[in-house]
Design goal:
Blueprint (H helix, E strand, L loop, with lengths): L2 E7 L13 E6 L2 E7 L3 H7 L7 E5 L5 H4 L2 H11 L5 E5 L3 H11 L8 E5 L7 E4 L3 E7 L7 E7 L5 E2 L1 H7 L3 H8 L4 E2 L5 E2 L5 E2 L6 E5 L6 H6 L5 E5 L7 H7 L4 H11 L3 E5 L9 H8 L5 E3 L5 E3 L5
Parallel strand pairs: 3-4, 4-5, 5-6, 14-15, 15-16, 16-17
Antiparallel strand pairs: 1-2, 1-18, 2-3, 7-8, 8-9, 9-14, 10-13, 11-12
Amino acid sequence: MSFKVTILGSASAKPTATRHPSAQAVDIHEQYFLVDAGEGVQQQLVRCGINPLKLRAVFVSHLHGDHVYGLFPLLSSLGLYGRRTPLPVFAPEPFGEILASHLRYFDSELPYTVEWHPTDTTRHALLWENRTVEVWSIPLRHRVPCAGFLFREKEPPLNVDKAAIARYGLSIAQITAAKRGEGVQLDTGETIPAGQLTYRPYAPRSYAYLSDTNFSARAAGLCAGVDLMYHEATYAAAERKIARERGHATSAEAARAAVLAGARRLVIGHYSSRYKDEMQLVEEARALFAETYPATEGTTFTIEKQR
């Protein structure tokens, strides 16, 4: 079952010739989620081979244009594509006013409903879930209300060991009981604990998206043990003062967050337009956290299953 993150945009506010504003697509078990929606996001989805009709929900970290301007043409195009199912959009206030204005003037007859869910950017809260996935908000420290997002698989169902089935001659009913975590009573009267019969097929995987923010120990702590972390790194370490004033992080601070979280891998992006080559930022981060990678557009990061 898939768990992938595709980078659609990695720039900060100022346009560049080679980078698009912030946007990512998260694929969990073939369920697609759009995270931020900078300009050109619908073209980037198509370029990366992602069908926009597969989007289950949209998560907008904050209401700066480089994170949301691309959402409105996407909403229009989804109507042209023939979407009929509601589209949940999670975003801070006053997104509802902005959405209402757009729908009034440009998309008054969409064939589907856009469902806005206000995000409380001060709370770590469950935003969305189904049988296999849950998405949590992560409070961030920016110039406007801003939240990151933690995507996490739920515990997969137990599997019953095939050798145990043969050893004890388990019936279908006994196998079903073991999968529920119940002990199984054999014909001999012996009860075999479920732990001796079953195993977890893989450990739940997770992805944290930390959008525009100053360094936040709290945010890093909420991502404890995450498999893959994205953290903005708008500036090089030498520009720490500017980063702090503008509500952003440096490459070194992104690495500190990954270390504090105990992340397995770190991806950095949201590069200032002053950096023509992002590898300067990547190398600075790698000095503190070796498993650091650039948010190169079109790149897909796969989180593999681990037992």
